[in-house]
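2024-03-11 09:14:02 DEBUG pipeline.ingest accepted 1 chain
2024-03-11 09:14:02 DEBUG pipeline.ingest length=147
2024-03-11 09:14:03 DEBUG pipeline.predict start
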Amino acid sequence: MNAIATDPTPAAATAPAETLTEPRILVVDDEQAMQLLASAIIKKLGYHPAAASSGEEAVEMYRQANLEGRGYEVVVMDLALPGGISGLEATLAIKQIDGNAKVIVSSGYLEQNARNAALEHGFSGILPKPYTAERLASELRWVMKQA
């Protein structure tokens, strides 16, 4: 018999504690390449990435994680999501779930100086596309330091 197959201990119970405490970041982008790139950068920074392809999926993932007590530290939200609800609508829904949610708006249509407008619309940060690993890391750190 295989010892692993008969071990009744759940995998999560045997995971190192640090993997359960690293900040979780949700990346919302309809382009899989952007999801993969951002997730790889986030993982390299020592955070735990998760990805959603639509506003609806993001809201549901956020709601479920919040209910389970393992919410996301930050959401990186693409503004232009085709079909369904937009990034702005998804952000508003996430803010209804958690009024303290930190959402970084990301889009190819943002001006670098649009931070004030983004903050007025409830976003915690701004990440114009295309972005570099350094820019994503910098914005994540800045937003996570905010109260």
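2024-03-11 09:14:41 DEBUG pipeline.report The radius of gyration is 16 Å.
2024-03-11 09:14:41 DEBUG pipeline.predict end
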